[in-house]
Amino acid sequence: MWCELLQVNFFDEYQIEGVSPDANEICLEVAPENLSRALKTAQNAKSVKIKLTKKHCPCLTLAAELPSLSSVSRVVTHDIPVDVIPRRLWHDYKEPSMPDFDVSIYLPPLKTMKNVVDRMKNLSNFLVIEANLSGEMNLKIETDLVSVTTHFKDLGNPPWGDDASQSRSQSRDPAAMAHARLDIKKLLQFLMGQQVNPSKAMCNIVHKRIVHLIFLHEDVSLQYFIPAVA
Amino acid sequence: MDYVATGSNVKVLAKAIHSLSRIGEELYFESTGRWLALRTVNSSRSAFACFHLCPLFFQRFHTPQGDSFRCKMPIKSVQAVFKSLSSLEKTVEKCRIEWKPEQSQLTFTLHCKMCSVLGLLKTHNLSFQDCESLQAVFDKERSPNVLRAQPRLLVDTVLHFPPSLEEVTLSVTSDRMWLKNHVEDESDQSQAMMTELYLSSEEFEDFVVTLANQHHFCLKELSAPTAPPPDDFMCDAHGLIPHCYGTSEIAGPSTQINQPPRSTHAPTPPNHRLFSCFSLSSSQFRSLFFGSVLPTPSQGTSQTLQGQDVLASDSEDEGSP
């Protein structure tokens, strides 16, 4: 999963001194549960400061100024241990490149998709997503006892433009379906985790290989790559 | 013995029991002509909790003259009587607690308003064991530190720590109170997320600190007193042994129209209808008496340590502090 936030939209103050002037980046590994819990307690905070510090180990120190009953604010401080990733390993963490997809389509409303996939998980461990360039998408499950298909129409296909790398999809028969078989839990986990309705939600399918989900909301982008199973 | 609680007091009774269940496994039940006490202590005898319910809390409070009744029972059995707090409020009109001398069981009867004509009675007969009176030994008058706050403050503070967290460290200085999560193991420190919160003395109704020091608590026990919320909640750091107590004005039985005025604070138990008391000693109980607490250098250490009473009598040897 890959998520990008433009700092200027979130922070009043932002200072960073990376590894070197030409590599002005810092790469940290952190347990998301810790960060999420720290941010939750700071929900009603007047202000939040996040610093990279060195306590008993490198830490992300989150200090939140909370409203209080007196003139002096309450301050809660969380020290979240992190691992600093050395520069030689940074290539492992680069944004994955957009795969050469066969079909790109806008997703149906997230709530509907969540409900459908949630019910399907009770019947099968695997789900097939298929879509074409005519705005049609099907979600299918098939077992010995039952097969269920949900059809979506008029979803629209994102116009990726005249990019040479997208040429595979340009010459394609608009009615032809590209599909991929996925572990239903992986898809559901991602859908259930969404807190906000994205302004744009797209799905790129590489036939029988990968499903690439892209969510855009204001200036935040979130991408999720799910490999297909046989 | 025959006690009847009605209306919203049934829920208060239930909350008191659920709150006690977070500390100990056995409920100590003691009734005299003056009050009904529900008490518990945890397995390591380092935390004690007690609710005193005065006669005004009940619609009917009948204790035979000169008789007092004392017993203990597994707290889970009593909790089972008051299972779902939200449905209690909607369905139960009355709760009756009875015992007759020839019986070996305590009877809890819930009168439910399921249907105005038929009604529904749920009767629970709980076996009990005889026991001694469970008392915590402490003297409020000798507390060098007194912190008094609205219960909301404690609830809001505890929220910042994860429910699974084992221990917290509470420190006080002359103008602040700090809460930090406490990690025993050196190796855990590199993995664990450390959280620290401080409250300025201005947030408290009373903040008197004559002895700056630190204690380690089990978080579960510290959050137990927040339900049911008292009107007035005090936390005394009695030198080395902090204890918290609260008093509440509870609505009288539904037949009573006027509430008696709030009386001035009297020694245990007060004239308020519900008096709750929680004593939380450090989980490093024995090590306290060997100087692992850090008083400020200006205080006479030896003077402080000598004057302490044992909180709960447990002479088990816990090994070196």
TrEMBL record, chain A:
GO terms for biological process: double-strand break repair via homologous recombination; meiotic DNA integrity checkpoint signaling; mitotic DNA replication checkpoint signaling; mitotic intra-S DNA damage checkpoint signaling; nucleotide-excision repair; telomere maintenance. Coiled coil: none annotated. InterPro entries: HUS1, HUS1/Mec3. Keywords: Nucleus. Pfam families: Hus1 (PF04005). One of its GO terms (cellular component) is nucleolus. It is found in: Nucleus. PANTHER family: CHECKPOINT PROTEIN, MITOTIC AND DNA DAMAGE CHECKPOINT PROTEIN HUS1. Belongs to the HUS1 family. This is Checkpoint protein.
TrEMBL record, chain B:
Residues 251-270, 298-321 are annotated as: Disordered. It catalyses: Exonucleolytic cleavage in the 3'- to 5'-direction to yield nucleoside 5'-phosphates. Coiled coil: none annotated. GO terms for cellular component: checkpoint clamp complex. It holds the Pfam family Rad9. Residues 253-266, 298-307 have a biased composition (Polar residues). PANTHER family: CELL CYCLE CHECKPOINT CONTROL PROTEIN RAD9A (PTHR15237:SF1), DNA REPAIR PROTEIN RAD9 (PTHR15237). It comes from Clupea harengus. The keyword Metal-binding does not apply. InterPro entries: DNA_clamp_sf (IPR046938), Rad9/Ddc1 (IPR007268). Its EC number is 3.1.11.2. Gene3D superfamilies: 3.70.10.10. This is Cell cycle checkpoint control protein RAD9A. Signal peptide: none annotated. It is found in: Nucleus.
